[in-house]
Every structure is written in structure tokens, then in C-alpha cells.
Amino acid sequence: MSRPMATSTATIKLRRPLTPKVPYRVRAIGIRGLLGRTGNSDRPFHQPALRLRRETSGGASPLRLLQSRMTDPRRDLPSVNALLEKAGVRSLLEQHPRRVVLEAVEVP
User: Fold this and answer.
1) Residue 56 pLDDT exceeds 60
2) Cα-Cα-Cα-Cα dihedral sign, residues 44, 45, 49, 51
3) Which SS3 state, helix, strand or coil, does residue 101 take?
4) pLDDT for residue 54 is more than 60
5) How many Å apart are CA 67 and CA 70, to the nearest integer?
6) 96 exposed, middle or buried (CB, 10 Å; 0-12, 13-18, 19+)?
7) CA–CA separation, 44 vs 29, rounded Å?
8) Neighbours of 89 (CB within 10 A)
């Protein structure tokens, strides 16, 4: 019987966006390699700087485009951690498994 194919990609979900030009460390623990051995990986990562393209037809400045992106009303929504700290949600955590409560809070 042949070995299953190794995973070559991973998806990382973050609670907030990365800051451009700031160094980060990406640590993977317990990853199985192509040879079937389990190991860890610790690598540097830099978020590339935001590059704004000039609008040729609309005349909007790069600064105006950036400001319009930052006015997304979803930014005003509380984080999942902030919701989990509220008294009503804490009582749900006492009655139901954490996974179930998290799935209800993290509606796609």
C-alpha cells in the first residue's frame, strides 16, 4: 500500500491583519514531512508593503483609495475574544461545549 500524499499547503486564519514591513515568525509544530517524519518549523515572514496603483480614469488619489478601504463597517464588530468575555456568552460556555459556542459566534 502506498503512502498518502503529503500536504503541501496550509491555511492560517488570523484574528487581525498583519502590519506591513513588520517581521513575524511562523512556527509550525508537529508537521509531517514527505518522508513521514514529524518535526517543527520556525521561519521568518515579512508582510509586503501595500502598493497603491494610481487611478487613471477616476482621478481618485492613492490616499483616498486607502481611506475608503479603512471605512469598512465590519471593522467596528467586536472580536471573538471580546464576545466570549461577555456574561451572556460565558453562561453559554458553561452549558455547551466551547466548540459549539465558537461555531455560533464565528458565522462566515
Assistant:
1) no
2) positive
3) helix
4) no
5) 5
6) exposed
7) 15
8) 15
Q: Residue 81 has which C-alpha cell?
A: 475574544
pLDDT digit string (tens) for 63-97? Answer: 666 666 566 677 778 888 888 888 888 888 889 88
pTM greater than 0.85 (yes/no): no
* b/e per residue 69-83 (b: at least 16 CB within 10 A): eeeeeeeeeeeeeeb
> Which of 68, 79, 67 has its CA nearest to residue 17?
79
Residue 57 C-alpha cell reads as 480614469
C-alpha cell at 23: 517581521
DSSP β-bridge partners for residue 43? 26
Angle (nearest 5°) at CA 45 between 19 and 67: 20
Task: Provide DSSP, 39-98.
Answer: EEEEEEEEPPPP-PPPPSSS---HHHHHHHHTT-GGGGSPPHHHHHTSHHHHHHHHHS-H
In one-letter notation, the amino acid at residue 98 is: R
